[in-house]
Write a structure and sequence with these properties.
The structure is a single chain. This protein is an alpha/beta fold and about 210 residues long. It folds into two domains: about 130 residues, Rossmann fold; about 70 residues, Winged helix-like DNA-binding domain superfamily/Winged helix DNA-binding domain (Arc Repressor Mutant, subunit A, Orthogonal Bundle), CATH 1.10.10.10. The protein contains eleven helices and six strands. Strands 2-1-3-4-5-6 form a six-stranded parallel beta sheet, with helices on both faces. Helix 3 packs parallel to helix 4, helix 8 crosses helix 11 and helix 9 packs across helix 10. The longest helix is centred in the last third of the chain and has 15 residues. The mean pLDDT is about 85.
Amino acid sequence: MDKISVLIADDHAVVRQGLKAFLGLQEHIEVIGECADGEEAVAKARELLPDIILMDLVMPRMDGVTAIRQIRSLCPSARIIVLTSFAEDEKVFASIKAGAIGYLMKDVLPPDLVKAIEAARRGEPLLHPEIALKLMQEFSTGPKPSAGDTLTERERDVLRLIAKGQSNKEIAAELFLSEKTVKTHVSNILQKLHLSDRTQAAIFAIQQRLVE
């Protein structure tokens, strides 16, 4: 299996060195670059095309949210995990809206960081519990569509498995469908529920109690 290529964006050299040293011990992960500000992160992402970017939010020259937005436009294949000390609602919502697939605090345990990188490579969201709670609370305000009223039974099955963190390939195997069909179901789910990505779909499924 190809190694997961990682770019580290953080304005603290000690943090970058620590992450690089730890991730360097993982046989299936390779740190291919590091940068100290948002502008450099955008340039490095375009140059190196990493699988995963670990993105701090508060950096000089360009903040993390702006960098996420630009990278998602220039390098849509790159998966971005926010790794920060800040859990303010404004930063959380802005980062997810900009296109981050994960949001972790810097006190995350090393094995959990590896799991997040692996999940992001598969296109699956992984959020710090505190962040997941914030997003659930945000989604719970105001009228929301009922999954039972808008989704077919098969789409509900797919949504349950998305919420369990399964990839399209895993969902296809469990439901005896093709990956192309699963991809179509996922697209329909997001469109019907007016959601933008799998992270929001997973949170919606939990909110609707479609999964435990």
